[in-house]
Amino acid sequence: MSDEKTPLAERPPILKFPFDAGDRIQGGVNPPPDYPPPDLGKLPRPPKTKTPPDEKGEK
């Protein structure tokens, strides 16, 4: 059971990091070279409009 819980618990965080955390929380703090365009576009957008809740709610 320990073996099955280890890979299962490690898989969700890894997939959610580059999408959820990287796109919403990290934004451009640690943008990977896999998709720099989406990260750079989301970072300057919220600060420029000064409405982070609006951008997150729309997307």
Account of the protein in words:
2% of the residues are buried. The chain has four helices and no strands. The protein has one domain. The model has no long low-confidence stretch (mean pLDDT 52). By secondary structure, it is mainly alpha-helical.
Provide a compact summary of the structure:
This protein is an all-alpha fold and 59 residues long. 73% of the residues lie in helices and 0% in strands.
Q: Domains counted in the coordinates: how many? A: 1
| Approximate strand percentage | under 5%
Helix content: over 70%
- How many alpha or pi helices? 4
The structure class reads mainly alpha
SSE topology string: HHHH
Tell me, rounded to a whole number, the average pLDDT: 52
Alpha carbon gap, first and last residue: 38 Å
Unreliable residue stretches: none
Whole-number radius of gyration? 15 Å
Features:
single chain; 59 residues; mainly alpha
SSE arrangement:
Blueprint: H1 2-25, H2 36-42, H3 45-49, H4 52-58
